[in-house]
């Protein structure tokens, strides 16, 4: 789905996608966003894995700053990459929020959050809502448009519904 | 004597599926719901292999793994890593394999057999 369609009439969009289409959807959004200055928060892949994949897909990786909340979960000293900030774990919401804030101060065009579903492993309900509200508020101040990706899993229906109340638009693919 | 495998995953469906697969193939299976539960159970029982989910609530795996002494570990990971990272991870301590989720059951079984033979 094209970015222009995703953001039509909205600055903050929750994209709910089935697991079978999840990777292709995220990659395609990231590639399109990379035409401009983008902050990519990853709770699904390490920065290194993501960068390798995006380069293969001819994304302009030099335009992307990564907030990687995965590498430090697995490795004591992650392989440091350019334009990368590392959070301790996908559950470290305060730390991730602070890193997003650091990025938003540098005025990014886009923010891609991949994914809300992974966050549900660590946090549920109020903390997630607070976290998303905070990210949205920071992005709004910076004039950044954001996509929050969520995998469509029936057990998360309630949480997805709650998140959809915080964004301008929810798209189900 | 049957080899014992510990399956550590916060997702009940994964624990049940892997347990069923391994038991059907002659292994004894112990399950744990997170890293801390895994350590608690390992203190009471020796196992031949720990299948350890990478993303679970509670103590992160980077802190759990050094506490697992003398037992082989294979990661089960929904998280994607680069080839170079995979090689590094598998060379760390007693981590011997990195199995990407969603996994094929036949492949998982083959890898478990190879590790504990």
Summarize the structure.
The complex is a heterodimer of chains A (173) and B (117). In chain A, 45% of the residues lie in helices and 20% in strands.
Core attributes:
heterodimer; A: 173 residues; alpha/beta; Rossmann fold; 45% helix; B: 117 residues; five-stranded parallel β-sheet; globular
Structure description:
The complex is a heterodimer of chains A (173) and B (117). Chain A is of the alpha/beta class. Chain A has one domain (3-145): Rossmann fold, CATH 3.40.50. Chain A is built from 8 helices and 7 strands. A 7-stranded parallel β-sheet of chain A has the order 4-3-2-5-6-1-7, sandwiched between helices. In chain A, α3 links the parallel β2 (38-42) and β3. The relative contact order of chain A is 0.22. The model of chain A has no long low-confidence stretch (mean pLDDT 93). Chain B is 40% helix and 23% strand. Chain B has one domain (4-116): 3-Layer(aba) Sandwich (Rossmann fold). The mean pLDDT of chain B is 94. Chain B has helices spanning 12-24, 35-44, 61-64, 83-90, 105-116, and strands at 4-8, 28-32, 49-53, 72-77, 95-100. In chain B, strands 2-1-3-4-5 form a 5-stranded parallel β-sheet. Chain B starts with a strand and ends with a helix. With 117 residues, chain B is α/β, with parallel strands linked by helices. Chain B is globular. In chain B, α1 (12-24) links the parallel β1 (4-8) and β2 (28-32). The interface between A and B is medium-sized, with 23 and 20 residues.
């Amino acid at each position: 789905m094209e970015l222009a369609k995703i953001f039509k009439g909205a600055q903050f969009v929750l994209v709910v996608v089935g697991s079978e289409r999840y990777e292709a959807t995220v990659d395609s959004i990231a590639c399109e966003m990379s035409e401009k200055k983008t902050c990519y928060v990853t709770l699904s892949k390490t920065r290194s894995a993501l960068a390798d994949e995006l380069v293969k897909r001819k994304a302009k990786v030099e335009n992307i700053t990564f907030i990687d909340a995965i590498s430090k979960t697995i490795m004591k000293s992650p392989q440091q990459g350019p334009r990368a900030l590392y959070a301790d774990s996908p559950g470290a919401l305060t730390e991730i929020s602070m890193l997003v804030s650091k990025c938003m101060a540098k005025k990014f065009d886009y923010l891609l959050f991949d994914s809300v579903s992974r966050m549900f492993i660590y946090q549920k309900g109020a903390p997630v809502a607070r976290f998303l509200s905070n990210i949205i508020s920071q992005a709004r101040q910076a004039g950044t448009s954001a996509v929050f990706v969520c995998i469509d899993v029936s057990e998360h229906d309630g949480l997805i519904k709650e998140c959809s109340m915080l964004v301008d638009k929810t798209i189900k693919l | 004597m049957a080899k014992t495998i510990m399956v550590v995953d916060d997702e009940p469906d994964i624990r049940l599926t892997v347990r069923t697969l391994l038991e059907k193939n002659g292994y004894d299976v112990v399950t744990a719901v997170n890293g801390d539960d895994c350590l608690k159970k390992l203190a009471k029982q020796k196992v031949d292999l720990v299948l350890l989910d990478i993303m679970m609530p509670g103590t992160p795996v980077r802190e759990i793994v050094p506490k697992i002494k003398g037992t082989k570990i294979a990661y089960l990971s929904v998280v994607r890593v680069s080839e170079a990272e995979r090689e590094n991870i598998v060379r760390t301590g007693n981590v011997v394999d990195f199995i990407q989720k969603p996994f094929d059951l036949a492949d998982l079984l083959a890898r478990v057999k190879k590790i504990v033979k």
